[in-house]
Amino acid sequence: MPILSFPHKENEWIEPDEIDRPVVTFGLSTELTRFELDLHHHRKGQILLVQRGALSCEMEGGLWIVPPRSAVWIPGATPHAIKASGAMEGYCAFVDPDADLRLPEQGCAVSVTPLLRELLVRAAHFPAFYEEGGVESRLLRVLLDEFISAESDDLHLPMPEDSRLRRIVVHMMASPGDRRTLDVWARQAGMSGRSLERLTRQETGMSFGRWRQQFAIMLAVERLAGGASIQQVACGLGYESVPSFVTMFRKTLGVSPGRYMAARQADTP
Q1: Confidence check: pLDDT of 33 > 70
Q2: Is residue 242 within a helix (H) or strand (E), and if so which, with residue range?
Q3: The domain 3-148: what is its CATH number?
Q4: What pLDDT does residue 128 have?
Q5: Interatomic CA distance for residues 51 and 68, integer angstroms
Q6: What was the pLDDT predicted at 77?
Q7: Second CATH level (architecture) for the domain 160-265
Q8: Is the CB of residue 64 less than 8 Å from the CB of residue 110?
Q9: How confident is the model over 50-84, as pLDDT tens digits?
Q10: Comparing C-alpha atoms, which of 260, 83, 258 is closest to residue 154?
Q11: Sign of CA dihedral 66, 147, 69, 24
Q12: Which Pfam families does the record match to this protein (predicted)?
């Protein structure tokens, strides 16, 4: 398939589920600063690599942020919605559920090795109906082996299902700089602070404070990958100073925001 632009040109897109091949690949490039794909699904699973820009992907089980040099796995038949920020370059492989029984059953994000990235980039230029049993098939077999052995990337935010917590999440996403306390959020949701803490743990497996910190980290990575400065991100997330934001980022991911993004972009053409 071709390297697609977005929005797609007429007759450019071929539905991957309609192509009788175990793996279907393509690339995506756009200079739009932001675009969204509403909730949809495919029969085939989907490996989506980000080379430039950042993606957020929401599906059952949570929200994933995908910065450069990471990929997200979306199992077949899983409803998902995607948002992209920054000028975007990405590569995608749609995988038939029967292509490899080792494929993850749940959505996840992985760190992309140089080999996996090069395989996805090369495969994006394969014809849609490549010769089965030929060179393309053998390379795609290696691609699946490399993906299955890739290490996980912990930019995942469990999303609650309780309607009261979802209202809090919607507000946080609309106003990420709102730093109100747990007790204030609890009163807005019509419960006590203790009840909000207990419900958050039940729904997400995290304390309210830990969930909120993970939310901030994911937004930070998304915005940094989209081209925002560290100062802009710190201000947008409601931090009183850049050093306090950098300290939080380093404690969570082990490196400063600048070093994190430099490592992600070091070998991006």
Answers
A1: no
A2: helix 242-253
A3: 2.60.120.280
A4: 87
A5: 5
A6: 94
A7: Orthogonal Bundle (1.10)
A8: no
A9: 988 888 899 987 899 888 888 999 999 999 999 88
A10: 260
A11: negative
A12: AraC_binding, HTH_18
